[in-house]
Amino acid sequence: MIGIFTALFLIKLVSGFDTNLPYSAFNECKEYRVDGQYVYKDSFNIHGLKNNRPYDNEVFRMKFYVLTDRDANIMISNERKVQNNDNAYEIVIGGWNNTKSTIRKNKFSVEVVEKLGSVLSALYPTEIVISLKQDGELTVILPGYERPYLNFKDTKASAWTYLGFSSWENTPARWFYDCPLGIDGPGGNDINTIFANIDIRVSN
After folding, report:
1. For the segment 95-127, what is each residue's pLDDT rounded down to a tens digit?
2. Is the pLDDT of residue 199 over 60?
3. The whole model's pTM is what?
4. Cβ contact 10:19 at 8 Å
5. What are the tens digits of pLDDT across the range 184-195?
6. How many CA atoms lie within 13 A of 8 on its CB side?
7. N or C: which end of the chain has fewer CB within 10 A?
8. What is the rounded distance in angstroms from the CA atom of residue 126 to the CA atom of residue 108?
9. Where are the domains of the chain?
10. What is the spatial distance between Cα 204 and Cα 65, in angstroms, rounded to a whole number?
């Protein structure tokens, strides 16, 4: 029994995945599945999410989990159906075959921020927290990795309305969104998130 716990602990130490996170952690989340296309088929109103709980100086603060091998894509925009030139934030987690994560200012455009590293798994959920401050600072946190994982200061900050998800060709993704923030939000005390946020791994 001790050997199994040690093995799981080492997996978490090396990879950053929370292998001990129970599926019950998703009970209060909503689920959305992507069949394996770089298409944002559906959109969700950010201000209608019950667990979007920003701090006083923020526009939004949201938590997600995702199960996929590569290209966990999040679109934040003011359009239900985003076109390539529409003003938006596209956050790509584990793109390029799970080797790089980025923030873009438009769909499929040039990256304004990027970070190398493997962060996705189809077996273990990757936890993602995204926040936007009123001054235009966009932050992406992956608990278990260095904080923030991605950060971008937009000098032309905007109020955003919609949230969407996509993946890449032939790569399905299982998203859990509108999740309780736990300790990653105001007044949080989620013990699972506390364990996941113990900063014990050497960052990439």
Report:
1. 999 999 999 998 988 899 999 999 999 999 999
2. no
3. 0.81
4. no
5. 999 764 434 444
6. 10
7. N
8. 22
9. 22-182
10. 21
Compute the residue count for the chain. Answer: 204
| Cα dihedral across residues 44, 45, 46, 50: positive or negative | negative
- The architecture in CATH of the region 22-182 reads Sandwich (2.60)
CA distance 146 to 141: 8
The DSSP code sequence of 24-65 is GGGTTSEEEEE-S-S-----EEGGG-TT----TTEEEEEEEE
Helix (H, G, I), strand (E, B) or coil at 114: strand
Distance of CA 91 to the CA centre of its chain: 8
Question: For residue 172, what are the CA distances in angstroms to 16, 39, 63?
Answer: 22, 12, 20
